[in-house]
Amino acid sequence: MEIDQLKNLLRRYFEGTLTQAQMHLLREALADPVNQHAYYDFLHEWELGNPQILPDTEADWLALSGRLNQPGSLRTVAPTWRPLIRSSRYWVAAALLVAALTGYWKRDLLLYHHYHTGYGSTKSVRLPDGSEVTLNANSDLKFSRFPALIGQREAFLKGEAAFSVTHLSDHTPFVVKTEDSLQVSVLGTDFLVYSRRERSKVVLTEGAIQLRSLKSGGAPLLVKPGQVVNVNSRGNFAVSQSPRPAEHFCWKDDRFFFDNTSLGEIGEQLQERFGIRLLIPDSALAATAISGNYPAANAEEVVKMLSTILNLRYSRPHPHEILLQKNLNFQL
């Protein structure tokens, strides 16, 4: 296909005026790696002429000037001179690296919608296809801007999120991918995906989903409502039936659900959600497990609850650390 013809098809696609026959031609053309490079170049060109985000330069300048006016915000650094021939080689290498990283960043920004939550916060978003997602704390999600070109709606997750996927009339599949090579394929359903530290968990409350691990290379797993699937670092599945699968979503209401969960594992959850380290020097205490559904909006409320239930004491040796110990006059 001629480059001008490809550009014309892409322009019409970006404008939303492409016919089904033209969409078929475009998909065939983009199967060629040469045309894929042209696609990224033209996408960047089109985005520059049709910006989707308009920066608030006045607000940005006010924020920057406020930081510059703070005491100690500026430092004077004496220049270090090096021979021109030697330094130029490093400048060229640095320029190439910056160009490569900038190109990747721009491409990623143009191809995906990005959503993020910090420590201690959750966020509910409506995706362009109408699906709804609630992100747990310290999580990232990106969603494809042009699903028609790849034949599916792709979501890439780091962290934890609850999905309510909208079924489309053209049956375009919805796929969630994680960093540990797990793929969750759905058409219309409610489910949760957790993916941290090279392990994942999937909980299904309604509909049907199919799991595939690219690590293990095993056969796809069809998950039924009420099932909980834990995926280890090797990509192996462990399926269990939960009598109350909705409790796995309780973090949306500032609650914690523990199912024979050890204090050490609870500490991992506090690190993930709030950026707080739970220090438990006593290994026997760290192995103590509890069950239940408890309200807690922050790490200290969780530790207070644990202290009350198990008759423990805690202290804050550092703003980002909580030390949990047995009471001296009490033995577990």
UniProtKB/TrEMBL annotation:
Species the sequence originates in: Ravibacter arvi
PANTHER family noted in UniProt: PERIPLASMIC SIGNAL SENSOR AND SIGMA FACTOR ACTIVATOR FECR-RELATED, PROTEIN FECR
Any single Pfam family the record assigns to this protein: FecR_C
Domain annotation Protein FecR C-terminal: ranges: 255-315
Full protein name: FecR family protein
Alphabetized InterPro entries for the sequence: FecR, FecR_C, Ferrdict_sens_TM
Top-level taxon in the UniProt lineage: Bacteria
Domain FecR protein residue range list: 115-209
